[in-house]
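Justification of computing resources. Each target in the renewal requires a structure prediction run like the one illustrated here; the chain below, 247 residues long, is used simply to show the kind of job we budget for.
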Amino acid sequence: MYDISTRKRSLTLVAQGRSLNSVSHETGISRAAIRSWQHRLEPLPRMTVPEPEPPADESAYAYLLGLYLGDGCISAHPRSGYYLRIACADAWPGLMHQCREAISDVRPGIGVYTLQQQGYAMVTSYYRHWPHLFPQHGPGKKHERTIALAPWQQEIVEAHPWEFIRGLIHSDGCRITNWTTRLVQGERKRYEYPRYFFTNLSTDIIRLFTEALDRVGVEWRYANSRNISVARKASVALMDTHVGPKH
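Resulting structure tokens:
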């Protein structure tokens, strides 16, 4: 048996927005007991939980959104809050640095750390409201569900399209050098030219990428159903100016 003050303390924790699991772990009282008290005792006024703040730096957010859609995920903390994780290959230390910097700019003051894995690192940050900042979070693989931007995200992407494109390229894209041969006055000569590729299994994410390219005047084409190619000289020059190769 629990006295009335113990019961009210437990219900107060619930009213603050805590889950039944969390309150049960803290107090040692079963979830079933707490749930029954919610109906039997006079309800306590629910405390207002502050809404999450918008991104502190919208340009950095557009870049981070591109990284998240390509190589990011959000997972729940065992008790409360969420982890944002962005996978960054060891081959691109500059990308890893830019990812950490973007997270810090989007939400100043929170911790950002790196978990080393075989051949790559997970740039990781804990924050209670990551799912609010990335509402694309959900169960299952991204290419197996609908991916659409919230209106406020769309406004940011339209205001900072190059940062969004750069994030997508830095996650699921690359800049390579292609070559071909041509006959010139009877002699076969080799020519090299740069090209950008973007690869993703999600048709929704590919659409978001190509819409952003259209917005900044970059010509593109489908190399196949999941690969976008940018090869025209003027468009590659634009990409080099605003994106550039990973490093």
